[in-house]
TrEMBL record, chain A:
Its EC number is 3.6.3.-. The gene is ecfA3_2. Pfam families: ABC_tran. Gene3D superfamilies: P-loop containing nucleotide triphosphate hydrolases (3.40.50.300). Transmembrane segments: none annotated. Keywords: ATP-binding, Hydrolase, Nucleotide-binding, Transport. This is Energy-coupling factor transporter ATP-binding protein EcfA3. PANTHER family: ENERGY-COUPLING FACTOR TRANSPORTER ATP-BINDING PROTEIN ECFA1, HEAVY METAL TRANSPORTER.
TrEMBL record, chain B:
It is found in: Membrane. GO terms for cellular component: plasma membrane. Its main location: membrane. The lineage of its organism: unclassified sequences, metagenomes, ecological metagenomes. This is Energy-coupling factor transporter transmembrane protein EcfT. Keywords: Membrane, Transmembrane, Transmembrane helix. It comes from bioreactor metagenome. InterPro entries: ABC/ECF_trnsptr_transmembrane.
Length: 259, 256
């Protein structure tokens, strides 16, 4: 597989001297399905911002398709789609179709090409038929899908989704996971940032775990054990390891443990 | 109610060019300011019927309608109260107040129809395109050749359309902040003014934060102030609509 990103000793230092990322060495390839996890404040979003060209490294370098990402910011933004954690702030248009058309219009495409891409992106995101709807009338899950459609219409090579399952019910979360899987089978590299691993890890080809800005695990999901997840403040996604799970109610409706 | 909310209205109005509709709105407003009571009443009924046919919701206009009634009542009081001949109220002044209310109502309903059938981004595109033409015309010949990076001044229309899109969102944020504050006792004590200032501060900070997020999202979606603007093609129906507006204005001016 061709190399998409190569991170060499990537570091990010905040204005107050705090370290956001420390010595990240990473190689991402075309067509991978990656899950980036870690506790809150571990640096997941910051690393993704670097990949999307929204932040610049304090140390080390990022190569995008073999070229320094600092000199490739325009290409990077056209090739890497970023779905923000707060997808509402990402919605700009007055209606669904207008919002999806925003990115392709910025690429300077012709009206027909824009219309075609809008149709295709709405089909992918399962929002066809809702073109005229105002974003504020959509449900939380639909708004998340709209944010994804807005990025898909730019036909990126790589799609980064920051906490795509936050505030979504299981059905909507599964729908987002299905869209990710479908896009990945079409050759788009997917990077999902989440600590809700049970919703997505079964689809991933590779798991990355960050802790305090350092890359602590990089490997196949099957190689990670329950101890590793516990060590980094994550719930083990494998069956039978959900610490919050409720016992099934008894015949009278009471739970066995009385929780 | 968001006065600038695009609604998926039925009929041909949403398909007409924003420029044609804006010219028509100006002509119609000028005509409404000149017409007498009877023709204006007919025009008002016609526009109301058009709004109804296109699916404009009546309840959207109720709040504004109340405001118009208050303005008309104030106008009637100012014109008719104590006319100086010993009467308390001059009933004959009601005609002028009714005319005033009808003029306001006609312009309001027409403007409502315009905003409900026009995309803000299209208005913004026209504004930016017009501004760029003016800038090019005003620039010195040498200045034109300079390769300057595009600045926000190249795209005032985007700023306008974004501001109008975000006004209702700012109201929604304020409602959430106020409800959360009320839930924690805001408004119950004596320090209401100080708490109000704290609410405003929270709103300003959250708005700035949201604006920064939106700016980043726009950047991530390849936005540049020097973006290419594609204006919709002016079609025969647009020209016909403009001609109708001009004729209406001309009739109103010639007939009075």
């Amino acid at each position: 597989m061709a190399e998409l990103f190569l991170l060499q000793g990537l570091g990010h230092r905040f204005a107050d001297g705090g370290e956001g990322l420390v010595g990240i060495d990473l190689r991402l390839e075309d067509g991978e399905f990656l899950v980036l996890s870690g506790r809150n404040g571990s640096g997941k979003t910051l690393l993704a911002r670097h990949l999307a060209g929204l932040s610049l490294p304090s140390e080390g370098s990022i190569l995008f398709r073999g070229k320094d990402a600092k000199t490739q910011r325009k290409e990077l933004r056209n090739s890497v789609g970023f779905v923000f954690q707060d997808s509402d702030a990402q919605i700009i248009g007055q209606n669904v179709a207008e919002d999806v058309a925003f990115g392709p219009a910025n690429l300077g495409l012709e009206a027909e090409e824009i219309a075609g891409r809008v149709r295709k992106a709405l089909d992918w995101a399962d929002l066809a038929g809702k073109e005229a709807r105002r974003p504020e009338t959509l449900s939380g899950g639909e708004r998340r899908k709209l944010a994804i459609a807005g990025v898909l219409a730019m036909e990126p090579e790589c799609l980064i989704l920051d906490e795509p399952f936050a505030n979504l019910d299981m059905e909507s979360a599964m729908e987002i996971a299905r869209i990710c899987q479908e896009l990945n089978t079409r050759g788009i590299t997917i990077l999902v940032l989440t600590h809700e691993l049970e919703k997505i890890l079964h689809l991933a080809s590779r798991l990355l775990i960050l802790d305090a800005g350092r890359l602590c695990f990089d490997g196949a999901p099957g190689e990670a054990g329950p101890e590793l997840f516990a060590q980094h403040g994550l719930a083990c996604p494998f069956q039978g390891h959900f610490p919050w799970i409720f016992p099934a109610p008894g015949p009278g409706g009471s739970t066995e443990s009385g929780v | 109610m968001n006065p600038f909310a695009l609604q998926p209205l039925a009929g041909p109005l949403p398909r007409l060019s924003a420029l044609a509709k804006a010219i028509f709105l100006i002509c119609l407003s000028l005509a409404a300011m000149r017409l007498d009571l009877l023709p204006l009443s007919l025009l008002f009924i016609l526009i109301l019927a058009l709004g109804g046919l296109m699916g404009l919701r009546l309840q959207d206009g109720v709040v504004a309608g109340r405001g118009l009634v208050i303005l008309a009542a104030f106008s009637a009081l100012a014109r008719g109260l104590f006319p100086g001949d010993g009467r308390i109220f001059a009933v004959e002044s009601l005609g002028a107040s009714t005319l005033y209310a009808l003029r306001l109502g006609t312009v309001f309903v027409s403007a409502r129809l315009f905003y409900a059938s026009t995309r803000l981004s299209e208005l913004g595109d026209y504004l930016s395109a017009g501004f760029r033409v003016l800038r090019r015309a005003a620039a010195f010949p040498g200045a034109r050749k300079r390769d300057r990076p595009p600045s926000l001044a190249s795209d005032p229309g985007m700023m306008l359309s974004l501001s109008l899109v975000f006004i209702p969102r700012a109201f929604e944020s304020y409602r959430r902040i106020r409800e959360s504050a009320e839930n924690r006792g805001f408004g119950a004590g004596k320090k209401r003014l100080a708490s109000g200032a704290a609410l405003l501060q929270a709103l300003i900070f959250s708005s700035i934060k949201n604006s920064l997020r939106t700016a980043e999202a726009m950047e991530a979606r390849a936005y540049s102030p020097g973006r290419r603007i594609i204006l919709p093609r002016i079609r025969p129906a647009d020209l016909l609509f403009v001609a109708f507006g001009l004729a209406l204005a001309a009739l109103a001016f010639l007939g009075t």
